Each structure stands twice: as structure tokens, then as C-alpha cells.
Amino acid sequence: LMVGLWFTMENRRRTMVSFAVLLSTVFILSFSVNISSSLAALKNNKAAWGFENGDIQLSRSTSILMDFTHQQLKEILQNEKGIHSFMPFGYESLTVLDKDGNTGTHLMGKVYEGDIDNVGLVNLKGRHPINDSEIALCVGTSKLLNRIPGDTITVYVEGQKMIYKVTGIYQ
Fold first, then answer.
1. Which of 7, 12, 56, 116 could lock onto 128 through a cystine, CB 3.0 to 4.6 A?
2. DSSP 8-state code for residue 118
3. pLDDT tens for residues 88-122?
4. Beta 160-170 vs 152-157: how paired, if at all?
């Protein structure tokens, strides 16, 4: 023990380098174990990571000709016994006005058709929208726009000015 302390005191630079290497190794090992564990748990809790809780996502392009309409496709999928739930969605582009009414930020987001609770997204604050004048924001958009549940948000969608009440912040 005395020889070790003497060696440490005599070679301070070597001791500091060894200590830095030790700390780096501990950090890398801890980070690796944490990331590995988180990725392994992803398949069991997709919604906590901000992903829809669906096993399959079907995309239909308008350039593909099918013998049935969008409504008929929805009915086929809803009546299929192997499908637990079905949630159509689309993408919408909008321009968010700042609180002074000036043109602000251009965003692209998902618009769900039906009960958003079926998607499996978790609200960190508030609740999911239940009517056409409400909107939920993801965590990043909420921070970017500085909006929380209860605030209103004014946007232009397809050239029309609309006002929504923020009801939830989801992840």
C-alpha cells in the first residue's frame, strides 16, 4: 500500500492519465449497457420512443391503380379478423404563425383519422385531441413553438387560416 501511494505521488502525470482512461472506460461501458438495454426494450414499448404502436404500416400511393376506393380499402382492413385496430393517417403541411400573427415556422406533420388513442402515442402533458379545433404537438414542436396545453396555435393549412387549441404534448 505504501509503495502504491509513493508511486502515485511520484508520478502524478501518469496517475492523472490513468485516472482519465479509467473514467472514460467506465463512461463508455455504462453508456453501452444503457443503450443496449434501451434498444432491446424498444420492441416492447414503441410508444415511449414516439413511434406508433403498430406492427404493420401500409402505404397506398395514388399512382397505383386498384379495383377499390380508399373507403373500400378501409372497410376491408377494418373487417379483417387478424387486424386488432386500424388507424388511417396522412401528412399535412402547414405554416405556424408566431404569437404576433406574423408568418413563422413551416412544419410537416401526421394527421390521424379516428381515435388517436388507438395509435399508442403517450401524452406527457394534457390529452389527445377529440374535436377538429384541437391539436396535440410532439415534444420537439412544443419546445420549438413554445406552446403548452391550453395555448392556441394559429396556422395556415392549404391557404386557410385556422386556430387550434393545444390539448396535449406527446412523445
1. 116
2. G
3. 777 888 888 877 777 778 888 888 877 777 777 77
4. antiparallel
